[in-house]
Amino acid sequence: MAEQRAQWGSRLGFILAAAGSAVGLGNIWKFPYITGENGGGWFVLIYLMCIAFVGLPIMMAEILIGRTAQNSPVGAFRTLSRPGSPWLGVGWLGVAAAFVILSYYSVVAGWAMHYTWISLTETFTGKSPEQIGDTFDALFESPKLNLFWHTLFMAITIGIVMAGVRRGLELCAKILMPTLFLLLLVLFLYATTTDGFGKAFTFIFAPNAEKLTPAGVLEALGHSFFTLSLGMGAMITYGSYLKREDDLVAASITVSVLDTTVALLACLMLFPIIFTVGLEPAAGPGLVFISIPIAFAQMPGGALLAPTFFVLLTFAALTSAISLLEVAVSYFIDERGWHRVKATLVCGGSILVIGIPSALSGGTKLFGESFQSLTKYLHVNEGKGFNWFDFFDYVATNWMLPLGGLGIALFAAWRVGAKAREEGFKAGTKFAKLYWGWVLLLRFVVPIAVLLVFLNAIGVLQRLGLTGNGP
Ligand code: PHE
User: Fold this and answer.
1) pTM for this one?
2) Quick check: 366 pLDDT over 90?
């Protein structure tokens, strides 16, 4: 660490960058489609509880670890414990998760870019829902298009991360986040005028547990980590660029509330359209790419709003992708002494390559059907197995992030020195009173919740006769 460590230019800059990391495809693409697959209702409720009682305390823990250690994930665990400690494994797991997640995340971001392009060149206006559905299938199955957009998206991400913390990460988030928020509001207002709004509201919020399985509960937990960018050191890394006197409690609350608002707004704008047009809520990963163009095709001004929406979706993905790449890059800068340019090129380049099978999952037998028959033996996805793309998403979200989050919670609550923990939490905050509540959540509630959800998902509770249905 020869140079002085980078820092955020302002408190707002940090909050926007952290919110930029949290708000992304997870909110607008993934949350609505998994809510659809799990039947809404209880799934949403469990997700909200996971955010409040598991995610939020872990976010505070991550920022605290990063800020106290002033180091990237692996180094942070070393600084706050000792060299060679097993805790370093949590940091390693995080760096590995960055490679896995960004590799397929970039493919979906590529879809958003493709949709920006076609909404400008072909427009959706006047197209039937069937035609719009076919457009998505054609994209999903095309190796060429997927590879092209995946490569382009990674190239842009690499370019920004290379520019560094203030000029790259912070500037980008400051402009993009407020615009995204505004556009979502406009779309939400439009959705309230459609016939399906009431039905959608009931679907999302009315307590309905019909479709909920133990695997669904694990998914809600995993997604609360994914959507808040937790469990893999992204917030440790961002926290390490934070000044010591900044209020991390208020920042964590702000980021979590923003993130949850965007996710709920995304559902409240998509499901009314889905019900109005008569689409299937459980349509899977194509949901946002089909329902949004259908709405725009029928809406006055749709020809203008469609490209705007997809540009913003691309940007939301970009600010998250930046934070994923930054975790890997900061590891090589801090631990191996690499220059930022070299670290970014090597990490970004590797992720580009690791993402190729995901980009080819829809269009080739090898990474699609054949991989799916292989993963059947793991008894995942109700015994149906996954293609490569879905498998990476499943492993990272449902296993790597909760496991990493568990490690971070235990580390912050039991291993970090009591004085450093208390001072770190209370520095500059109006919420000093929450300290013991936070520690208790991290010590007991988080570990027990994560363990129960794991045991439930692998069917242990069911074998003990404690729950009704298995995975
Ligand atoms: N939170 C991001 C989203 O919702 C994804 C992400 C996960 C980013 C983990 C960084 C780390 O899209």
Assistant:
1) 0.90
2) no
